[in-house]
Write a structure and sequence with these properties.
The two termini are 25 Å apart. The strands form 4 sheets. The chain has a two-stranded antiparallel ribbon. With 520 residues, the protein is mostly helical. The chain is globular and about 70 Å long.
Length: 520
C-alpha cells in the first residue's frame, strides 16, 4: 500500500496517546499486557493439535512424538495436485525494485534469523527421501545457538573453568574459539569439536566451504552459526553476556564451582533472551508501540499453557528473505548484500559494536512478494520453501484465514492492493480460493504502521507467545533467586532490549544508537 489515510493516522495517534496513559498506571499496564497477549495466543485452537507430520490422521505417535513436526491444518493432497509450475511461482518473489521497510533496521533480520534458527530445525535428508516430516528441534527457546543442542555438545563448548564458555581474544574483543585448525592435511575440524554437529549437518554446511570460510569459522552451538554476519554477531554477543554473568556470579558466590556457575549463568541468559523476544522483538512487529512485558507465571493461568511443539507452518512463515535489501553499508562502504554470507572477517575487523550500529542505521527490506534479492533467489530459498509447503500438502491461504478467525479474502486485488500483482496471481491460480498459503502470506498488503500482512502477523504472534511464555524458567516455582542467583535476577529485571546487551558487552556508549527501529 502506498500510504495510510488521514483517518488511519489520526486513529493511530489516538491509540498511541491512550496506550501511553495506560502504561503510566502499572496495574492497567499489566492487565492490558495480558489481554493483548491472550488475544493472539487464543487466535486459533490450542495444542495439542490432532494432526502432525507423523500421519495424515490422528495417531498416538502424532500426538506425542515431537520428532515429527506439528501442523495446524490437515493435509490437502488433492488441492496440491493442481498447483501452478514451481518456477512460475518462484518468479513471484524476484526483486523488481529495492523496496525498503518503513522503520525496521537491518539489525532486525540479523536477530530474527539467529533467533529462529534455534528452534525451526527441519531435518534434512537426501533429496530422494526428503519429506520434511521430521525435525531436529528442542522445541524450546534454550539458546542452543551458543550452548549446543544437547549436553554432550554443551560440554564441548564449555571452558570448564568459572562457568564460562570457551572464548578467545581477537583485536581486543572476545569471540568464540575457532572450529578448525591447521594440520598437515590442511584445515580440519578440531578433535575437541568432533560430534558438535551431526555428520550430515556438518557435511551439508562445510563440505564445500572455502578455506577462508573454514579459517574464520567459530565453534558455536549450531551448524549454521557462521553462515551470516548476523548469526556471528548474535552468537558473539550472547557468549560475552554468558561469560560476563558467570564472572558476576563467581565474584558474589566464591563457593560455587564451575558447574553451578555455568548452569546459573545459562538460566539467566535464556530469560534475558525471552525478555528481548517479547519486549523488544515482538514489540517491534506489533502495529502499535506498546511495551509488552514478560510476567513470570502469567502463562500458567491460561488455557494455552501447553507443551511446545513447532509446526511446519511456523517453520515456513519465517522465511523472511525479503528483509535483506539489495545493498548494505558497513564502515562507509556499500556493497551487494551477498557479502553478509560467510563473512566472519567483517565482524572481526569492524567489531561487534560497529556492525550493530551500522546495521541499526540502514533500513531492512520490505516483507512481501517481488522483493527477494537475486543472490538468495539463486540459492533456491523461495523455491525450496514452496516445495516444502507442497510436500507437506498445506491447505490454501483462505483456509488458514478461517482457521485463525478471519474472513476469507474475496479477490486478488483485495489481497494485494496492487492491480498488476493481482493479475499475475490470477493468471497463475485462477481463483483466490486456490492461492497457496505460502504465497498468500507474502502477497497480503499492509499499511505503513505494520511490517507484514494480517495473517502472517497473527500466526507469528500466536506461536511466539504460546511457545516463549511457556518456558519452564518463567514458572512461578522456578523464577527466583535460587534459580538465577540474586545478582542474576537483578540483571534479568533490568534487561528488556537487545541494545542493553550490546552496551554491556561492547564499548557502546549510547543504547539509543542500536535497535530494531531505524536509527539516525
Amino acid at each position: 500500500m502506498a500510504g495510510e489515510s488521514f483517518g488511519t493516522r489520526a486513529k493511530n495517534w489516538l491509540v498511541k496517546k491512550g496506550l501511553k496513559a495506560v502504561v503510566a498506571v502499572p496495574p492497567l499496564h499489566r492487565r492490558l499486557n495480558r489481554k493483548l497477549i491472550n488475544s493472539y495466543a487464543s487466535a486459533t485452537r490450542i495444542r495439542p493439535r490432532p494432526f502432525s507430520m507423523a500421519a495424515d490422521y490422528t495417531t498416538w505417535r502424532g500426538l506425542t512424538d515431537r520428532r515429527y513436526s506439528g501442523r495446524h491444518l490437515p493435509e490437502a493432497r488433492s488441492y496440491n495436485a493442481g498447483l501452478p509450475p514451481l518456477d512460475q511461482v518462484d518468479a513471484l518473489f524476484k526483486k523488481t525494485e529495492d523496496r525498503r521497510a518503513t522503520d525496521t533496521s537491518l539489525l532486525f533480520p540479523f536477530f530474527a534469523q539467529w533467533f529462529t534458527d534455534s528452534f525451526l530445525r527441519t531435518k534434512w535428508k537426501k533429496p530422494e527421501a526428503q519429506d520434511f516430516a521430521e525435525n531436529e528441534s528442542n522445541h524450546e527457546i534454550d539458546l542452543c545457538q551458543i550452548y549446543g543442542v544437547g549436553e554432550e555438545q554443551t560440554r564441548m563448548l564449555r571452558s570448564g573453568e568459572g562457568g564460562r564458555l570457551k572464548s578467545q581474544t581477537l583485536n581486543g574483543e572476545e569471540f568464540p574459539v575457532f572450529l578448525f585448525e591447521e594440520t598437515a592435511e590442511g584445515l580440519t575440524l578440531k578433535p575437541e569439536f568432533d560430534g558438535l554437529y551431526t555428520p550430515d549437518n556438518f557435511m551439508r554446511v562445510f563440505h564445500k566451504a572455502s578455506d577462508s570460510h573454514k579459517k574464520n569459522a567459530f565453534a558455536v552451538g549450531l551448524e549454521h552459526g557462521n553462515s551470516t554476519v548476523g548469526n556471528t554477531v548474535m552468537n558473539t554477543l550472547f557468549l560475552r553476556e554468558h561469560n560476563r554473568i558467570a564472572g558476576v556470579l563467581a565474584k558474589a558466590h566464591p563457593g560455587w564451582g564451575d558447574e553451578r556457575l555455568f548452569q546459573t549463568a545459562r538460566n539467566v541468559c535464556i530469560v534475558i533472551l525471552l525478555k528481548i523476544v517479547i519486549g523488544d522483538y515482538i514489540k517491534h512487529i506489533a502495529p502499535v508501540d506498546f511495551p509488552l512485558m514478560v510476567v513470570p507465571g502469567m502463562a500458567e493461568k491460561e488455557h494455552w499453557y501447553r507443551t511446545n511443539w513447532i509446526a511446519v507452518e511456523f517453520a515456513l512463515l519465517y522465511r523472511w528473505h525479503d528483509l535483506i535489501p539489495a545493498t548494505v553499508t558497513f564502515n562507509g562502504e556499500t556493497g551487494d548484500a551477498a557479502t553478509l554470507r560467510h563473512n566472519n572477517a567483517l565482524v572481526m575487523d569492524l567489531g561487534v559494536e560497529k556492525v550493530c550500529r551500522d546495521a541499526s542505521r540502514q533500513l531492512a527490506g520490505k516483507i512481501g512478494l517481488q522483493n527477494t534479492p537475486d543472490f538468495l533467489l539463486a540459492m533456491g530459498v523461495k523455491k525450496h520453501s514452496v516445495q516444502m509447503a507442497r510436500a507437506c500438502a498445506l491447505a490454501p491461504f483462505n483456509d488458514y484465514r478461517r482457521h485463525y478467525g478471519k474472513e476469507p479474502v474475496r479477490s486478488f486485488e483485495a489481497l494485494t492492493g496492487d492491480p498488476a500483482l493481482a493479475r499475475k496471481l490470477e493468471a497463475l491460480y485462477g481463483s483466490i480460493d486456490r492461492l497457496e498459503w505460502f504465497v498468500g502470506i507474502f502477497a497480503e498488503a499492509y499499511g505503513e504502521s505494520d511490517m507484514m500482512g494480517e495473517l502472517l502477523k497473527i500466526m507469528v504472534a500466536n506461536d511466539a507467545f504460546t511457545q516463549a511464555l511457556t518456558n519452564p524458567l518463567l514458572a512461578v516455582a522456578v523464577y527466583n533467586a535460587d534459580t538465577f542467583g540474586a545478582e542474576g535476577l537483578e540483571i534479568i529485571e533490568k534487561t528488556s532490549t537487545l541494545a542493553q546487551v550490546v552496551a554491556r558487552n561492547t564499548a557502546l556508549q549510547d543504547e539509543a544508537g542500536v535497535g530494531f527501529k531505524i536509527r539516525g
